[in-house]
Amino acid sequence: MKTLAALSILVVAAATAASTAAVAGCSSTSDPGTGTPPMQGDPGAGGAPGTAGGGAGGAGTSGGAAPGGSTPGTSTPATETKVKSGIVSLTQTSFAAGGMTFNSYTAFAGFSEGTVATLNSASCKQSTDADCNITECSAPTSQPDAGVADGGAVAPVKAPTAGDITIAAGQTITLSPDDKGAYGAKTGQVQLFAPGATIQIDAKGDTVPAFSKALTGPSVVTLTSPTWPAAGQPPLAFDHTKALALAWSGGSTGNVGVTLSTSVSGAVTVIACTFPANANQGSISAAAMGKLLVTDSASISMSASSTESFEQDGWKLQVSANSPVKAGSTFASGVAKVQ
Questions:
Q1: Domain count across the chain
Q2: Alpha carbon distance, N-terminus to C-terminus of the chain
Q3: Is the pTM here over 0.85, yes or no?
Q4: Which of 9, 132, 147, 224 is deepest in the core (most CB within 10 A)?
Q5: In this structure, is residue 136 part of a structural domain?
Protein backbone atom coordinates (compact mmCIF):
# COMPACT_ATOMS: atom_id res chain seq x y z
CA MET A 1 0.00 0.00 0.00
CA LYS A 2 1.70 3.13 -1.28
CA THR A 3 -0.59 5.58 0.58
CA LEU A 4 0.90 4.89 4.03
CA ALA A 5 4.45 4.96 2.72
CA ALA A 6 3.86 8.16 0.74
CA LEU A 7 2.43 9.93 3.79
CA SER A 8 5.36 8.82 5.93
CA ILE A 9 8.05 10.15 3.62
CA LEU A 10 6.15 13.37 2.93
CA VAL A 11 5.86 14.14 6.63
CA VAL A 12 9.49 13.30 7.35
CA ALA A 13 10.88 15.12 4.32
CA ALA A 14 8.85 18.23 5.09
CA ALA A 15 9.81 18.11 8.76
CA THR A 16 13.47 17.72 7.81
CA ALA A 17 13.24 20.75 5.56
CA ALA A 18 11.62 22.78 8.33
CA SER A 19 14.12 21.77 10.99
CA THR A 20 17.14 22.38 8.79
CA ALA A 21 15.79 25.82 7.92
CA ALA A 22 15.52 26.57 11.62
CA VAL A 23 19.11 25.48 12.15
CA ALA A 24 20.27 27.64 9.27
CA GLY A 25 18.57 30.61 10.88
CA CYS A 26 20.66 30.20 14.03
CA SER A 27 23.95 29.09 12.58
CA SER A 28 26.49 30.00 9.96
CA THR A 29 26.30 26.49 8.50
CA SER A 30 24.63 26.61 5.10
CA ASP A 31 24.43 22.85 4.40
CA PRO A 32 22.77 21.14 7.35
CA GLY A 33 23.42 17.64 6.10
CA THR A 34 21.11 14.80 5.37
CA GLY A 35 17.74 13.77 6.70
CA THR A 36 16.94 10.10 6.21
CA PRO A 37 13.36 8.90 6.43
CA PRO A 38 12.62 6.06 8.89
CA MET A 39 10.14 4.35 6.69
CA GLN A 40 9.50 3.77 3.05
CA GLY A 41 7.60 1.28 0.97
CA ASP A 42 9.96 -1.08 2.62
CA PRO A 43 10.88 0.28 6.03
CA GLY A 44 14.58 0.81 6.41
CA ALA A 45 16.62 -0.93 9.02
CA GLY A 46 16.95 1.15 12.12
CA GLY A 47 15.55 2.45 15.34
CA ALA A 48 12.08 3.08 16.63
CA PRO A 49 9.87 5.78 15.10
CA GLY A 50 8.72 8.82 16.97
CA THR A 51 5.19 8.29 15.63
CA ALA A 52 3.63 5.58 13.62
CA GLY A 53 3.35 7.76 10.53
CA GLY A 54 7.05 7.07 10.09
CA GLY A 55 9.60 5.04 9.92
CA ALA A 56 12.66 4.25 8.34
CA GLY A 57 13.61 4.38 7.64
CA GLY A 58 13.36 4.91 6.61
CA ALA A 59 14.25 4.60 4.03
CA GLY A 60 10.89 4.20 4.22
CA THR A 61 8.20 6.39 -0.07
CA SER A 62 7.22 8.97 -2.17
CA GLY A 63 4.69 14.50 -2.03
CA GLY A 64 2.28 19.61 -4.37
CA ALA A 65 3.56 22.61 -5.94
CA ALA A 66 6.33 25.09 -5.37
CA PRO A 67 5.82 27.41 -2.42
CA GLY A 68 4.03 30.61 -3.16
CA GLY A 69 1.99 33.34 -1.60
CA SER A 70 4.10 33.56 1.55
CA THR A 71 4.97 37.03 2.71
CA PRO A 72 8.33 37.35 4.48
CA GLY A 73 7.86 37.77 8.18
CA THR A 74 4.43 36.11 8.28
CA SER A 75 3.52 32.65 9.51
CA THR A 76 2.40 30.03 7.00
CA PRO A 77 -0.20 27.72 8.57
CA ALA A 78 0.71 24.06 8.51
CA THR A 79 -1.41 21.82 6.32
CA GLU A 80 -2.98 19.04 8.34
CA THR A 81 -3.54 15.50 7.09
CA LYS A 82 -5.84 13.14 8.97
CA VAL A 83 -4.20 9.83 9.75
CA LYS A 84 -4.90 6.56 11.57
CA SER A 85 -1.79 4.55 10.98
CA GLY A 86 0.72 2.24 12.56
CA ILE A 87 3.74 0.06 12.05
CA VAL A 88 5.28 -3.06 13.55
CA SER A 89 8.87 -3.55 12.46
CA LEU A 90 11.53 -6.14 13.15
CA THR A 91 15.14 -5.58 12.06
CA GLN A 92 17.85 -8.20 12.34
CA THR A 93 21.57 -7.91 11.66
CA SER A 94 24.15 -10.63 11.37
CA PHE A 95 27.87 -10.34 10.65
CA ALA A 96 30.96 -12.49 10.97
CA ALA A 97 34.23 -11.45 12.59
CA GLY A 98 37.13 -13.43 13.95
CA GLY A 99 35.55 -16.70 12.98
CA MET A 100 32.39 -15.93 14.94
CA THR A 101 28.92 -14.79 13.88
CA PHE A 102 27.23 -12.00 15.79
CA ASN A 103 23.45 -11.56 15.65
CA SER A 104 21.17 -8.88 17.00
CA TYR A 105 17.61 -7.72 16.52
CA THR A 106 15.41 -4.74 17.30
CA ALA A 107 11.61 -4.84 17.32
CA PHE A 108 9.31 -1.88 17.76
CA ALA A 109 5.76 -0.70 17.14
CA GLY A 110 3.97 2.64 17.05
CA PHE A 111 0.50 3.94 16.23
CA SER A 112 -1.01 7.40 15.79
CA GLU A 113 -4.46 8.84 15.27
CA GLY A 114 -5.42 12.42 14.52
CA THR A 115 -3.81 14.95 12.24
CA VAL A 116 -0.23 15.42 11.15
CA ALA A 117 0.95 18.90 10.23
CA THR A 118 2.89 18.47 7.01
CA LEU A 119 4.81 21.70 7.60
CA ASN A 120 4.38 23.81 4.46
CA SER A 121 3.38 20.74 2.45
CA ALA A 122 2.64 23.00 -0.51
CA SER A 123 6.42 23.24 -0.95
CA CYS A 124 6.68 19.48 -1.49
CA LYS A 125 5.87 17.44 -4.55
CA GLN A 126 5.74 13.71 -5.10
CA SER A 127 6.35 11.70 -8.23
CA THR A 128 7.05 8.13 -9.27
CA ASP A 129 9.57 6.71 -11.68
CA ALA A 130 9.39 2.96 -12.38
CA ASP A 131 10.17 1.23 -9.05
CA CYS A 132 10.95 4.49 -7.25
CA ASN A 133 8.99 7.12 -5.35
CA ILE A 134 10.45 10.61 -5.20
CA THR A 135 9.75 13.40 -2.72
CA GLU A 136 11.13 16.90 -3.30
CA CYS A 137 10.68 19.61 -0.67
CA SER A 138 11.98 23.13 -1.03
CA ALA A 139 13.12 25.04 2.03
CA PRO A 140 10.17 26.37 4.10
CA THR A 141 9.71 30.11 3.77
CA SER A 142 8.61 30.44 7.40
CA GLN A 143 8.11 28.39 10.50
CA PRO A 144 4.66 26.77 10.86
CA ASP A 145 2.29 27.96 13.54
CA ALA A 146 2.81 25.72 16.57
CA GLY A 147 -0.90 25.91 17.34
CA VAL A 148 -0.50 26.46 21.10
CA ALA A 149 -2.84 29.13 22.43
CA ASP A 150 -1.73 31.67 25.04
CA GLY A 151 1.74 30.12 25.20
CA GLY A 152 0.37 27.23 27.25
CA ALA A 153 1.83 23.76 27.24
CA VAL A 154 0.09 21.01 25.31
CA ALA A 155 -1.12 18.28 27.63
CA PRO A 156 0.31 14.88 26.71
CA VAL A 157 -2.14 12.60 24.96
CA LYS A 158 -1.97 8.85 25.26
CA ALA A 159 -1.12 7.27 21.93
CA PRO A 160 -3.46 4.59 20.58
CA THR A 161 -2.27 1.02 20.96
CA ALA A 162 -2.98 -2.42 19.57
CA GLY A 163 -2.45 -4.03 22.97
CA ASP A 164 0.26 -6.64 23.39
CA ILE A 165 1.93 -7.61 20.11
CA THR A 166 3.50 -11.06 19.88
CA ILE A 167 6.22 -11.79 17.31
CA ALA A 168 6.96 -15.50 16.92
CA ALA A 169 9.84 -16.77 14.83
CA GLY A 170 12.86 -18.70 16.13
CA GLN A 171 11.91 -17.21 19.48
CA THR A 172 8.80 -15.46 20.72
CA ILE A 173 8.92 -11.87 21.96
CA THR A 174 6.13 -9.55 23.10
CA LEU A 175 5.88 -5.79 22.67
CA SER A 176 3.73 -4.13 25.32
CA PRO A 177 2.66 -0.47 25.50
CA ASP A 178 3.29 1.65 28.58
CA ASP A 179 0.68 3.88 30.24
CA LYS A 180 1.32 6.58 27.61
CA GLY A 181 0.73 4.19 24.73
CA ALA A 182 4.40 3.99 23.76
CA TYR A 183 5.99 0.70 22.76
CA GLY A 184 9.58 0.49 23.92
CA ALA A 185 11.96 -1.14 21.46
CA LYS A 186 12.89 -4.71 22.34
CA THR A 187 16.40 -5.90 21.51
CA GLY A 188 18.34 -9.14 21.70
CA GLN A 189 21.65 -10.69 20.75
CA VAL A 190 20.34 -13.79 18.98
CA GLN A 191 19.08 -14.70 15.53
CA LEU A 192 15.34 -14.20 15.75
CA PHE A 193 14.45 -15.41 12.26
CA ALA A 194 16.13 -17.28 9.42
CA PRO A 195 15.80 -16.39 5.72
CA GLY A 196 12.63 -17.97 4.37
CA ALA A 197 11.25 -18.76 7.84
CA THR A 198 7.72 -17.78 8.88
CA ILE A 199 7.41 -14.76 11.18
CA GLN A 200 4.02 -14.59 12.87
CA ILE A 201 2.82 -11.21 14.17
CA ASP A 202 -0.31 -11.08 16.32
CA ALA A 203 -1.77 -7.96 17.95
CA LYS A 204 -4.29 -8.47 20.75
CA GLY A 205 -6.14 -5.26 19.87
CA ASP A 206 -7.20 -2.14 21.74
CA THR A 207 -7.92 1.26 20.14
CA VAL A 208 -6.23 -0.24 17.10
CA PRO A 209 -8.14 -3.39 16.09
CA ALA A 210 -6.60 -6.81 16.56
CA PHE A 211 -4.70 -8.18 13.59
CA SER A 212 -2.68 -11.24 12.62
CA LYS A 213 -0.13 -11.37 9.81
CA ALA A 214 2.57 -13.80 8.69
CA LEU A 215 5.76 -12.68 6.96
CA THR A 216 8.57 -14.63 5.34
CA GLY A 217 12.08 -13.92 6.63
CA PRO A 218 13.91 -11.80 4.03
CA SER A 219 16.96 -13.04 2.15
CA VAL A 220 20.55 -12.41 3.18
CA VAL A 221 21.54 -10.00 0.42
CA THR A 222 25.06 -8.78 -0.45
CA LEU A 223 25.70 -5.73 -2.63
CA THR A 224 27.99 -6.55 -5.57
CA SER A 225 27.78 -3.32 -7.58
CA PRO A 226 28.70 -0.58 -7.09
CA THR A 227 31.66 -1.61 -4.98
CA TRP A 228 31.26 -0.39 -1.43
CA PRO A 229 34.35 1.55 -0.25
CA ALA A 230 36.57 -0.01 2.38
CA ALA A 231 37.02 1.67 5.76
CA GLY A 232 39.01 4.87 5.43
CA GLN A 233 38.27 5.22 1.71
CA PRO A 234 36.23 8.06 0.14
CA PRO A 235 32.47 7.45 0.13
CA LEU A 236 30.49 6.33 -2.87
CA ALA A 237 30.05 9.05 -5.48
CA PHE A 238 27.03 9.21 -7.79
CA ASP A 239 26.67 11.21 -11.01
CA HIS A 240 23.21 12.74 -10.79
CA THR A 241 23.02 12.99 -14.59
CA LYS A 242 23.31 9.22 -15.09
CA ALA A 243 21.25 6.18 -14.15
CA LEU A 244 22.43 4.22 -11.11
CA ALA A 245 22.71 0.48 -11.69
CA LEU A 246 22.67 -1.75 -8.61
CA ALA A 247 23.41 -5.46 -8.33
CA TRP A 248 23.37 -7.89 -5.45
CA SER A 249 23.57 -11.58 -4.72
CA GLY A 250 21.55 -13.89 -2.46
CA GLY A 251 18.12 -12.49 -3.27
CA SER A 252 15.35 -15.08 -3.09
CA THR A 253 12.44 -13.85 -0.96
CA GLY A 254 11.05 -10.40 -0.27
CA ASN A 255 12.32 -7.12 -1.65
CA VAL A 256 15.40 -4.94 -1.63
CA GLY A 257 14.79 -1.33 -0.69
CA VAL A 258 17.15 1.50 -1.60
CA THR A 259 16.87 5.02 -0.21
CA LEU A 260 18.92 7.98 -1.43
CA SER A 261 18.52 11.21 0.50
CA THR A 262 19.96 14.68 -0.02
CA SER A 263 19.48 17.89 1.97
CA VAL A 264 20.95 21.28 1.11
CA SER A 265 20.09 24.55 2.87
CA GLY A 266 16.73 23.23 4.03
CA ALA A 267 15.70 21.68 0.72
CA VAL A 268 15.27 17.90 0.77
CA THR A 269 15.03 15.26 -1.93
CA VAL A 270 14.40 11.59 -1.15
CA ILE A 271 14.33 8.72 -3.64
CA ALA A 272 12.96 5.46 -2.24
CA CYS A 273 12.97 2.42 -4.51
CA THR A 274 11.78 -1.16 -4.03
CA PHE A 275 12.99 -4.04 -6.21
CA PRO A 276 12.19 -7.77 -6.09
CA ALA A 277 15.05 -9.41 -4.20
CA ASN A 278 15.19 -12.37 -6.60
CA ALA A 279 15.92 -10.03 -9.53
CA ASN A 280 19.37 -9.50 -7.98
CA GLN A 281 19.52 -6.15 -9.69
CA GLY A 282 17.76 -2.81 -9.95
CA SER A 283 18.20 0.56 -11.60
CA ILE A 284 17.38 4.15 -10.71
CA SER A 285 16.85 6.12 -13.90
CA ALA A 286 18.81 9.19 -14.93
CA ALA A 287 15.57 11.21 -14.69
CA ALA A 288 15.14 10.20 -11.05
CA MET A 289 18.80 10.71 -10.18
CA GLY A 290 18.60 14.16 -11.73
CA LYS A 291 16.23 15.25 -8.98
CA LEU A 292 18.88 14.71 -6.26
CA LEU A 293 20.63 17.75 -4.83
CA VAL A 294 24.38 18.04 -5.39
CA THR A 295 26.10 17.54 -2.03
CA ASP A 296 29.00 15.76 -0.35
CA SER A 297 26.74 14.66 2.52
CA ALA A 298 24.03 12.59 0.88
CA SER A 299 23.03 9.27 2.40
CA ILE A 300 22.29 5.84 0.98
CA SER A 301 20.81 2.84 2.73
CA MET A 302 19.80 -0.59 1.48
CA SER A 303 17.80 -3.29 3.21
CA ALA A 304 16.24 -6.63 2.38
CA SER A 305 12.68 -6.79 3.61
CA SER A 306 9.43 -8.67 3.79
CA THR A 307 6.57 -6.20 4.14
CA GLU A 308 2.78 -6.24 4.19
CA SER A 309 0.66 -3.10 4.19
CA PHE A 310 -3.07 -3.40 4.84
CA GLU A 311 -6.16 -1.55 6.06
CA GLN A 312 -8.21 -2.71 9.02
CA ASP A 313 -11.29 -0.86 10.26
CA GLY A 314 -10.01 2.44 8.88
CA TRP A 315 -6.43 1.98 10.08
CA LYS A 316 -3.56 1.95 7.61
CA LEU A 317 -1.09 -0.56 9.02
CA GLN A 318 2.22 -2.06 8.00
CA VAL A 319 4.26 -4.97 9.34
CA SER A 320 7.79 -5.70 8.19
CA ALA A 321 10.88 -7.81 8.78
CA ASN A 322 14.17 -6.30 7.64
CA SER A 323 17.85 -7.10 7.30
CA PRO A 324 20.44 -4.55 6.16
CA VAL A 325 22.13 -5.40 2.87
CA LYS A 326 25.72 -6.51 3.36
CA ALA A 327 28.63 -4.84 1.60
CA GLY A 328 31.99 -6.50 2.15
CA SER A 329 32.67 -6.55 5.89
CA THR A 330 30.03 -3.92 6.63
CA PHE A 331 26.52 -2.92 5.59
CA ALA A 332 25.35 -0.88 2.59
CA SER A 333 24.39 2.20 4.54
CA GLY A 334 26.28 5.46 4.97
CA VAL A 335 27.34 8.80 3.57
CA ALA A 336 27.57 9.29 -0.19
CA LYS A 337 28.49 12.08 -2.58
CA VAL A 338 26.19 13.35 -5.33
CA GLN A 339 27.97 15.27 -8.03
A1: 1
A2: 33
A3: no
A4: 9
A5: yes
